[in-house]
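Record type: monomer structure entry
Structure origin: computed from sequence
Chain ID: A
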Amino acid sequence: MSGRAACERLSPREGVGSHAPFEGFVSALVSEAESTLHWGFCMRRMAVFLFVCTALGAALLAPSMANAALYPQCPAVDQDTGCQFLFTVTDTETTVESDPAQGPYEGSDDALIGIVNNSSKPLSSIALSAEIELFGFEFDGICSPGAGPIPTGCVVQAKNSANEVMANAGESCPPATEACGFVPPAGEPPNNKFESNILINGIAANGDMVTGYEGPTSWFTGIASLGSFPTGKGVVNFSPALAPGASTYFSLESPPVGGFGSATTLSTTLSGGGQSGASISVVQGTPVTDTATLSGANAATATGPVSFTVFSDSECKPTVAAAGSATMVAGNAGPSTAESLPPGKYYWQAHYSGNLENQAFTSACGSEVLTVLAPTTTTTTQTGGGVVGASIPVLVGSSVTDQAHVAGALAATATGSVTYTLYKDKKCKVPAFAPSAGAVAAGTALPSAAVKPKAGTYYWVASYSGDGVNAPSASACGSEVLIVSSKAKLNLPSSKGCASKRRFVVHPRGPSNLKLVSIKVFINGKFAKAGKLTHGATTLSLVGLPKGTFKVELVASTASGKTYEDTRTFHTCVSKKHRKK
């Protein structure tokens, strides 16, 4: 056998692990030996070569300082410089944090776990579970991960996994790599064994099976199935018990990407402006909050925070607001902080951080949509009998229409429709006609359908539907009054001659001597006066009107609400004594 062949029979697994640059360095050294020395001399010098190779290879393979440990409660193991996961135990909960810079320490699935006891009592054990083979150990572990470094204290056990006595028991690992693990702590019961589906590294002097995943003060018990996973749960024990403020470490097989415990889902509900649901619309200025409900096998015992975030697009990328966090209690968390947002569409998302019994979960982007609408106001103008205004008199048989105008910060682009309803009563409860609608464009609606009401007093209400950015609104009941009267001669004075600066005393008389009790006066369609008759009389004033022609409508009502209208057209002029000289 050549010296090169003899050197290559030493598997990298028997040293500090397989690594391409390291193997190349070994081969180069051996090739040099073959060219200058005979085979026997190579064999005598092999120990020296391997010692040099091991030292240099360890330096080449040491974890990068750039991969600095966020949680230094764990020692450096293989590719990790600290804990991949950190459990923090308090008097009320156990939180789980992860360091994204620390992956599986052997590059595949094994995880380095740190634990800190921040409770007020010593911690003797902790139960863990996950919907994966969390305790499915397979020969290796933190004392023999395949490459250095490994923790101090790893030694060869009394027997290997095949129950064969190890002649080098107690020797440090490395350079020894078979049956490596920590010596079981004093508190671990002797002859602690595992089921056959759990592979071990060796057997300790007290008969305890050693998986190699134990830390220097821990051991595993109660490994059992969780759902379809035969080794999905178990108990990590500590001896001595972990004192308040103290920390230690161990490792696990294949911790779940989604977290420890059972799988969960998170449903959320937005609330604001008297509404609640997954998707709501509110008017600008309305505070909105979010709540979350956790579902899962262990949801009732869930603890830990739920954070709420508001985004401006359906991919949940640009953050609009961090809406605070709330603690999960009995599967429920919230409300979030109240958010009052500008007009627009927003996407809320809730994230549950998880704990040991429940996996973390983030609600789906787009599962909660908040639409904030710009406030609007709707005003109206009615037209009929040749007059236009908020309150107008018309004779029976006149056609009347209403038209709405929408105002607001974004009303210039308003769309949607306006529904017009004419009511018989002051509370706007009893419609006189079926409602009609008009489309809205640029804040102005098409007019209502024309109506011809019977004699009486009516009240319009126009309701704007709103659109994607503008909030609904409605005109106020009573903001428009329509008086429909029968034609009658009410004893108005003559309209002949100049009526400038005149007041008329009028004694209205109803048809068939009906007693009239109140009047309304309109001049050119605009309301001018209203009141009760005094001794059957009222005053009609044209004082202050400029020179011109004015249509005066007198509407008189009986006690039962019947109305009668009389009209005169008066001409005003400036008398000689008021003309400029």
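Annotation 1: Residues 85-252 form one domain.
Annotation 2: The chain is about 10% helix and 40% strand.
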